[in-house]
Amino acid sequence: MKKLLIGLCIVVAGMFSACEIVSANDDIMVIPEGQRVCYEQPQVSTDAPVDPTVNYDSHYLNNKNGRELSFISYITPKTAVIKLFSGISVADFVKIHDDLRKLKDYTNLRDVTFVLNSPGGSAFDGLSIASLIKKAQDEWGFTVRAEGFGIIASAAVPIFAVCKPRIVAPGTLIMVHEAALWKWPGKETQSDIKSQDALMTMLNDRYVKFLVDHSTTTDEDWRKMIKATTWMTPEKAVELGLADEVK
């Protein structure tokens, strides 16, 4: 039994040691057939901005000082990619805020691509993310483009609308509607209901303003569409000025 265990240890150790360390900066790597390769992450000085031309192929800006991006983001040689899939929540706002801040403070990279495939989610957080993108564009010098796939609906639409350019994949469905309240059973006073009505009015007004400001369609027409819960094709979105290209 001891000989067997020793033999296994030697084999396992050999599996992890018999590999060639290859820098991720290499343009072309010729690997002999059967050769195992360990990829070495490029090291970046913590005292200097990250070189945006380095292909990290990961969410790491740096191996020190907590400068890694969240799991929804990664860097390529040309752009930082931020993915928004499934429901939108405050957690998405926090991740996107932190990632954009780190890109601004630690790198010279100012090109961001949002990839959206989302049915929506929290109206507050969708509008907050749209406002954050505007801040990144207007104050931090970012170019933020959007690529839409599958579905762009509800709270995801303002996020898509504020980007430029906005590319939609063929077959993608886009939907706009009024804000809705989800309530847990319990009592409410007349004043509560009036307050909620005021809140819903403000949410719908903010939603429509983002659509009007980033399309060629009027306030009146958008209000008719959100009241009717309107689904549209990519081609219709281009016609309304909500998207720039179907591709």
Can you give a write-up of this model?
The strands form two sheets. Strands 3, 4, 5, 6, 7, 8, 9 and 10 form an eight-stranded mixed beta sheet that branches. Strands 1-2 form a two-stranded parallel ribbon. It is of the alpha/beta class and 247 residues long. It is globular and about 55 Å long. Helix content is 38%, strand content 23%.
Present the secondary structure layout.
Blueprint: H1 2-17, E1 19-23, E2 36-40, E3 73-75, E4 80-88, H2 90-106, E5 111-121, H3 123-138, E6 143-153, H4 156-162, E7 166-168, E8 173-176, H5 190-213, H6 219-227, E9 230-232, H7 234-239, E10 245-246
Helix pairs in contact: 2-3, 3-4, 3-5, 4-5, 5-6
Quick recap:
Helices cover 38% and strands 23% of the residues. The protein has 247 residues and is an alpha/beta fold.
Low-confidence regions: 1-49, 52-59
Indicate the percent of residues in helices. 25-40%
Beta content comes to 15-25%
Q: Round the Cα radius of gyration to an integer and report it.
A: 24 Å
Strand segment count:
10
